Amino acid sequence: MAIELHHDDLPDGLNLGSVVAIDTETMGLNPQRDRLCVAQLSAGDGNAHLVKFSNEGFDAPNLCALLSNPDVLKLFHFGRFDIAVMEKFLGVSAAPVYCTKIASKLVRTYTDRHGLRDLCQELLGVDLSKEQQSSDWGANTLTEQQMVYAASDVLHLHALMAKLDAMLARENRTEMARACFDFLPQRAELDLAGWQEIDIFSH
């Protein structure tokens, strides 16, 4: 595994392919309050690119171009949060998208364990460490442990997508999943607009 750390944006000319796994690290779980600190990306080749943001601005044209590129599928786990926080701080809505958490909830109805670690354990036989999940991602310098943790959150998403796609097809829920993925950027916008805890489809 190779981890490349970039500051404030992706380098010019970087091609991560047609499906890019993406995750974020923030100062907390409220995108209205907690700033974006790190975005991590992987092409599914076992390598990860980390973009470390300073608190002085979020001018990242190369990353924004990737997020908005209609020919690149953005692959998330719990994309609802990552899409919202990147829209808040980078000013761009990611599309098209795929979310392994949504896919898991649609097809793994035999369990209520849909976290990334749970998925990796069951579907890939991989045990992820979550030790650095609550560390200070706003620090000026990331530790080696933080970088490894951040990379691990995107390195397995391509393999998970392949497993979940097979299960979705088996259970005839592929089109349902695609409709949910298509709505996800709008769900993120609702979160940013104040409807985080409100189910607009309820009575």
Write the SSE topology.
Layout: E1 3-7, E2 19-26, E3 36-42, E4 48-52, H1 61-68, E5 73-76, H2 79-90, E6 97-99, H3 100-107, H4 116-124, H5 144-155, H6 157-170, H7 174-192
Parallel strand pairs: 1-4, 2-5, 5-6
Antiparallel strand pairs: 2-3, 3-4
What's the CATH class, please? Alpha Beta
Q: Specify the structural class.
A: alpha/beta
Q: How many helices in DSSP terms?
A: 7
> How many domains is the backbone divided into?
1
Structure description:
With about 200 residues, the protein is α/β, with parallel strands linked by helices. It has a single domain (about 5-190), classed as 2-Layer Sandwich (Nucleotidyltransferase, domain 5), CATH 3.30.420.10. It has seven helices and six strands. The chain has helices spanning about 60-70, 80-90, 100-105, 115-125, 145-155, 155-170, 175-190, and strands at about 5, 20-25, 35-40, 50, 75, 95-100. It has a six-stranded mixed sheet. The longest helix is centred in the C-terminal third of the chain and has 19 residues, at about 175-190. The radius of gyration is 16 Å and the shape is globular. The N and C termini lie far apart (about 50 Å). The mean pLDDT is about 95.
Give a nutshell description of this structure.
This protein is of the alpha/beta class and 203 residues long.
